[in-house]
Amino acid sequence: MTTGTATAQAHPNIAFIKYWGNKDQELRIPVNGSLSMNLDGLFTQTTVTFNTFFPKDSLTLNNKPITGAGLDRVTGILDLVRQRAGMNTSAEVRSDNNFPTGTGIASSAAAFAALALAASTAAGLHLDEQQLSILARRGSGSASRSIPGGFVEWQAGADNDDSYAFSFAPAEHWNLADCIAVISSEHKPTISSQGHTLASTSPLQAARIADAPRRIDICRQAILNCDFEALAAIVELDSDMMHAVMMTSTPALFYWRPATLAVIQAVRDWRSEGLPVCYTIDAGPNVHVLCPQEYVETTANRLRTVDGVQEVLVSKTGGPAKLV
Amino acid sequence: MTTGTATAQAHPNIAFIKYWGNKDQELRIPVNGSLSMNLDGLFTQTTVTFNTFFPKDSLTLNNKPITGAGLDRVTGILDLVRQRAGMNTSAEVRSDNNFPTGTGIASSAAAFAALALAASTAAGLHLDEQQLSILARRGSGSASRSIPGGFVEWQAGADNDDSYAFSFAPAEHWNLADCIAVISSEHKPTISSQGHTLASTSPLQAARIADAPRRIDICRQAILNCDFEALAAIVELDSDMMHAVMMTSTPALFYWRPATLAVIQAVRDWRSEGLPVCYTIDAGPNVHVLCPQEYVETTANRLRTVDGVQEVLVSKTGGPAKLV
Questions:
Q1: Residue B303 contacts residue B275 (beta carbons within 8 Å)
Q2: For residue A254, which residues of chain B lie inside 8 Å, CB to CB?
Q3: Separation of alpha carbons B119 and B113, rounded Å
Q4: Are B252 and A240 within 8 A, CB to CB?
Q5: Do B207 and A211 touch (CB under 8 A)?
Q6: What is the per-residue pLDDT for A19?
Q7: Which residues in B lie closer than 8 A to residue A204 (C-beta atoms)?
Q8: Global pTM?
């Protein structure tokens, strides 16, 4: 092959039961399973072109050339693809997000899911969903969950081949929405990949892990039953448990800002007044506020009134990574 | 005896290693030991008068008559005193704080320490420090720590008679100060006594308890060595661990407000710039910022510039509860 090209789109996902900490850091095999839904309104689009005339791999992200650690991480995935396809051709990777990066909207999840699909296709491979999820995971753990569509479970697994994500309910199963209260679009001080290595320094991480199967069962069942009240309780507990571990790591990781806490408190107040909303927060200051679709307008409007909320992005449940 | 009166003063205390959760709720025997220092600048003054002409116990707190649960809790202590003294005389209790109540400055600690000393003395008892600490504990767990002076350890103990506090270093041992950033003087939504009963609902509480002896040893040693850096690390970790348990209880307890988090972040930034400060937070929104005495002015002035800080109270290390 002298050339091959493919373009893929993938959504970020919001975890209901969080991924935090690896049992194998290099392979990104997590200490606990996790659950998420894809975010329809947001996506990364990535084009990979292999060409024997390229002297080396290159990466352009949102129109900016990227070198160093960012490019190395992409080359790591390209190497896995090249190895599998039996080739050593360099690639040009061009990736664009329609949402701000580095704010806890898990841009790396969408990015590595799109990359896994585009790169493997451009190399002439035909990977199934499970193989794609495993490949995406190698770039960013949560990217494994952006390969399948709808409501997704990532089983922790024991080794590379059985740590992958699958859909347990399609996007149409439940009209859930995510109203993302954007607190800051600054780059976060500690990126998730580094944070994962600190998880085991928290005296609370072992308890979080030990309790994870229980939380996953409750959360999966709440989704299958479309039971918002049950979902709210377990999603907030799980998010708070992850941030508890982060804040009690050495060094301590504080992703919350004052406005993050203001949104948490507002959401808890609104729910106690009868509005079906709950919050969950990834490794960043933004707050994902979940609600049934019919409450999106009320929720988004209220969020815009909270001090420190810069904008609100709204997203429905999204489908799988796909070629375009 | 037809009449007997005594007046006592006691300081609140700030815990470096926190008390959260009881193994015996009624006796207030804690699940873990704790460490604290008394706060010199703040105190409760309480006068107890037994008189056979009083038809029943009465309580006046900051010039307001108190009935109901507040009075019942005081009567509980008076009953223990009367039982021990072999009397059944009613008492008039008058108590005044020189600091705002219900804001997480542990007013109940100072209140029940002063009450234990004043009531037992007014009843003609001569209790030693250990017996006073046990008696105070029955009214409010952390009150056991406001009986001895200086730097105090409350050993959890297994039963009523060996759950008490003692001084392990006098107030003069180390010139530490507490700059209390007052965020709100509103009454807190869940008082500590109720919160303790929820601690065991957190999936993280068992891990917090299991790790407590390690934290106590590190903290005690840091104090004995006057090692601020070591103190800062363990005090912040312990405070964050307690709030982690609170936030992951069912129902969840959030004592932090947006301004609480702003102070946490400011303190962490200032320390990374070289100012020896650290934070610890009780069951309320206020932030206790510890520093060596010579940094009090800088610290208090900086705290006053943080959005949402209403005032800053400054306190040195205080002595034991005493008769006045």
A1: no
A2: 261, 264-265, 268
A3: 10
A4: yes
A5: no
A6: 97
A7: 204, 207-208, 241, 244
A8: 0.94
| Prior bond of B170 cis (ω within 30°) | no
B197-223: per-residue pLDDT in tens?
999 999 999 999 999 999 999 999 999
Residues B149 and B18 in one domain: yes
Residue ranges for chain A with pLDDT beneath 70: 1-2, 101-104, 106, 185-190
For residue B288, being part of any structural domain is answered with yes
Distances (CA, A) of A241 to A249, B283, B292: 12, 19, 33
How many folded domains does chain A comprise? 2
- CA–CA min distance B234, chain A (Å): 10
Amino acid residing at B300:
A
Residue B324 lies in a domain: no
CA B240 to chain A, closest CA, distance in angstroms equals 6
Tell me whether residue B221 is in a domain.
yes
Q: Are residues B80 and B182 in the same domain?
A: no
Residues of B in contact with A234 (CB under 8 A): none
Among chain B residues, the shortest Cα distance to A241 is held by: B248
Identify whether the C-beta of residue A282 lies closer than 8 Å to the C-beta of residue A140: no
pLDDT in tens, B7-58: 999 999 999 999 999 999 999 999 999 999 999 989 999 999 999 999 999 9
Contact A252 B237 (CB under 8 A): yes
d(CA B321, CA B115): 10
Of B139, B172, B205, the position where a domain reaches its end is: B172
Torsion of CA A139, A285, A15, B211, to 10 degrees: 90
In this predicted complex, what is the ipTM? 0.91
Residue B236: list chain A partners with CB under 8 A. Answer: 252
Look up the domain containing A211 and give its range. Answer: 175-316
- The nearest CA of chain B is from the CA of A102 a distance in Å of 20
**Domain closes at, from A133, A148, A172:** A172
Q: Say which of B248, B261, B268 has its CB closest to residue A240.
A: B248
Q: To probe the interface with A, which of B18, B201, B204, B211 has the most A CB atoms within 10 Å?
A: B204
CA distance B238 to chain A (A): 8
pLDDT tens per residue, range A88-105: 999 999 999 998 765 557
Burial of B2 per CB tally in 10 Å (0-12, 13-18, 19+)? exposed
Residues B217-256: tens digit of each pLDDT: 999 999 999 999 999 999 999 999 999 999 999 999 999 9
Report the CATH number at residue A199. Answer: 3.30.70.890
